[in-house]
Structure of 5'-nucleotidase:
Amino acid sequence: MEKTIETILSHRSVRVRDSNLVKKKLTEMLKGGNDQLGVISDFDFTLTRSVDHDGMPCFSSHNVLNQLLYALHPELEEEIRAVNAKYIAIEYDPRLSREEKLPYMIEWWTKAHDKYIEFRIHREEIEQFVANAKIELRARWSEARSVTHSLPTDQCASCVPGVVSACSEPLIHVFCKDASVIPKDAPFYDDIAHRGNILLLGDSLGDLHMDVGVAHKGTVLKIGFLNSRVDDLLESYLDGFDIVLVEDQTMDVPDLILQALLENSKKLD
């Protein structure tokens, strides 16, 4: 177990603030085994790559709809890009608190959804763009997924509507992806009720709170993918996440943890 933990911490992309705390959490999580683990993960730029193999940007879910709007209404591109740039700067501003950012995020996603409604994007158009979208899963995702197939896994992403004549409530944005937006009768709660430990995966500081409202009594290990602006954001990410993965387009580290947990569970059986 100690060798596995050292392998994880010595990975080229790993940065930690408190290595002793991370070792303690990893030890407790590995001892608990599969039966005690639940996984909570963001989707865009967490399970998916932020850049492709050539270093070119990949799309987020919302960006697929934006690209569709650009294709159908080229005159909107400059306006939408300017709006996104404004709110992205606010989302990642390390000087602002979560509470200060909240109203801006609500304002941002409301404006975005209003655009989708206003221009009446059709399901067929969405399906066509999704099929050709530049959304790529991270390397070793399939290996990690094969380990988690028996674990309760909640994947959170900001709402992208189907047929855009209205958007479902509640509005989901980067700072409210937690249990408050999951229906109380969802199977997720029963699946995770007896599991004490949580592995949380995200790429934004807003993802730090995805475990809020999930009942558990054990360890929460938070892993953050820092995909860009490393010099500006590393300290903030280290303050929030137990492990920060710097410019890493793979699932290597989560997979190492999950594989070690699986092996340890076999020993416990």
User: Anything to note?
Assistant: The longest strand covers residues 220-226. The first helix runs from residue 2 to 9. Confidence is low (pLDDT under 50) at residues 150-166.
